[in-house]
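Researcher: Quick test of sequence recovery. C-alpha cells follow.
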C-alpha cells in the first residue's frame, strides 16, 4: 500500500506556495494602487472566506480581497460568538510585555502588600490622569510603576522633571495629581523622562493615562477603580 505521507507533504508544500503567491499579489497590488498606504507589516487569512487581514503600523488593521481590489477599514464581527474579532486582534498586537517595560525609568507607589502589579504612563497636566489617580487611591495591595510621560507641552515636561528630581517622587506626584500641590522646582539628571517619551512612541502609547497590567494587556484612558480591580484580578503574568 502506497504511503500517504509523501502525498501530504507535497500537498502542504503546494498550499504554502499558494499562500505565499496570494500574499505577494495582495502586497503588490495595494502598494501600486495605494502609494500612500503605510508599509504592509503582514498579510494573513481571516475566518471569513476570501477576506484577508492587512496589518500596517504594527497594529492598524485593514481588510482586503484575494486580489487587493478592495480595502475595508472597520470591525469584523463574529456574529455566532458575538465577538469583535478586530478589537481582539488589536488588543493582542498592542499588548506590552510587562518584563519589557523600562522599570528603572519609573518610580513606584506601593499600597498594602503591593503584590499585584501595574504600570501607568501619565502626563502631570492630563485631567483624565488626575481623575484616574484620585480613583486609584481606592485600590489596595498593589504596586504601581509610574512612568512620567509628558506629551502635552513644555509645562508637562517641567512638572515631570520636578517630580522626578524630588526627594520623594511618589509624594510629589500624588501631592500634585490628587491634592493640587504644585511640585517645587528641582533639578537633576532627568533623562529618564525623555526615555519614557521615546519608549512610548515606539510602543505607540498615544494618550494618557495608559495602563499596562502584569499580563501585558494595555488599557487606554481613565478607567474606574472597579475596572482596575477586575483587570488586576484577571491579569496573569
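Model:
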Amino acid at each position: 500500500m502506497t504511503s500517504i505521507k509523501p502525498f501530504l507533504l507535497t500537498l502542504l508544500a503546494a498550499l504554502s506556495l499558494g499562500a505565499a503567491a496570494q500574499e505577494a499579489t495582495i502586497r503588490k497590488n495595494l502598494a501600486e494602487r495605494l502609494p500612500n498606504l503605510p508599509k504592509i507589516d503582514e498579510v494573513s487569512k481571516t475566518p471569513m472566506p476570501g477576506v484577508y487581514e492587512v496589518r500596517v503600523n504594527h497594529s492598524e488593521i485593514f481588510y482586503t480581497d484575494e486580489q487587493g481590489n478592495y480595502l475595508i477599514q472597520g470591525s469584523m464581527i463574529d456574529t455566532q460568538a458575538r465577538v469583535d474579532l478586530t478589537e481582539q486582534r488589536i488588543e493582542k498586537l498592542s499588548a506590552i510585555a510587562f518584563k519589557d517595560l523600562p522599570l528603572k525609568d519609573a518610580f513606584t507607589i506601593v499600597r498594602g502588600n503591593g503584590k499585584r502589579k501595574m504600570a501607568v504612563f501619565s502626563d502631570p497636566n492630563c485631567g483624565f490622569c488626575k481623575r484616574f489617580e484620585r480613583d486609584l487611591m481606592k485600590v489596595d495591595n498593589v504596586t504601581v510603576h509610574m512612568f512620567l510621560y509628558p506629551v502635552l507641552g513644555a509645562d508637562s515636561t517641567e512638572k515631570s522633571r520636578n517630580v522626578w528630581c524630588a526627594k520623594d517622587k511618589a509624594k510629589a506626584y500624588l501631592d500634585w495629581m490628587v491634592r493640587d500641590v504644585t511640585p517645587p522646582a528641582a533639578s537633576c539628571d532627568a533623562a529618564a523622562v525623555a526615555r519614557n517619551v521615546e519608549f512610548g512612541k515606539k510602543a505607540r502609547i498615544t494618550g494618557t493615562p495608559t495602563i499596562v497590567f502584569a499580563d501585558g494587556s494595555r488599557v487606554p484612558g481613565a478607567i474606574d477603580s472597579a475596572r482596575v480591580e477586575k483587570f488586576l484580578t484577571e491579569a496573569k503574568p
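The chain has a mean pLDDT of 90.
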